[in-house]
C-alpha cells in the first residue's frame, strides 16, 4: 500500500531534518511510536517531538548560555501542530547557519624548530 501524500511529505521533511544534523529516536515501542529529535550546537539546543501525522507534534529552540539557568534553558521559539507544519518550520525557517556541523579538520602548521641556544665560553678576567 502506498503512503498518503502527507505521510510521504513528512518522511521527506524528516530526512531533511536528519540532513541538517538532527538525530531521532523512538521514545516508545513500535514502528508508529513517537519520535524525539535533538540537534545541538554551541549556540542552540533544538528539540522536535513528532507524536503523529495530524497532531501531537511540537518543537522548541533554546539558546545556550554559559551560565547555569535555573529551570533549564528558556525557549526562544516554539511551534506545535501537525507534523508537516512543525518539521517544515524546523527545517526551513530556523536558521541553518547555527545548526551543528561536523567538526572542521584544521591542518596543522609545522613551525620550524627553535634554534639551538648559543653557548658562550666562560671568560676569565
Topology (SSEs and partners):
Layout: H1 5-19, E1 23-26, E2 35-40, E3 44-50, E4 57-63, E5 75-81, H2 83-93
Antiparallel strand pairs: 1-2, 2-3, 3-4, 4-5
Helix pairs in contact: 1-2
Give your account of this protein's structure:
This protein has about 120 residues and is of the alpha+beta class. It has one domain. It has helices at about 5-20, 85-95, and strands spanning about 25, 35-40, 45-50, 55-65, 75-80. A five-stranded antiparallel β-sheet has the order 1-2-3-4-5, covered by helices on one side. The longest helix has 15 residues, at about 5-20. The N and C termini lie far apart (about 105 Å). Mean pLDDT is about 80; it is low at about 100-110.
3D shape: elongated
Provide mean pLDDT, rounded: 79
Order of SSEs: HEEEEEH
Largest sheet: 5 strands, antiparallel
First CA to last CA: what distance? 103 Å
What structural class do helix, strand and pairing data support?
alpha+beta
Indicate the proportion of strand residues: 15-25%
Number of helices: 2
Poorly predicted segments = 99-111
Task: Give the tally of structural domains.
Answer: 1
Backbone CA Rg: 25 Å
* Range of helix content: 10-25%
The counted number of beta strands is: 5
Strand order, sheet with most strands = 1-2-3-4-5
In a nutshell, what does this entry contain?
The chain is an alpha+beta fold. It has helices spanning 5-19, 83-93, and strands at 23-26, 35-40, 44-50, 57-63, 75-81.
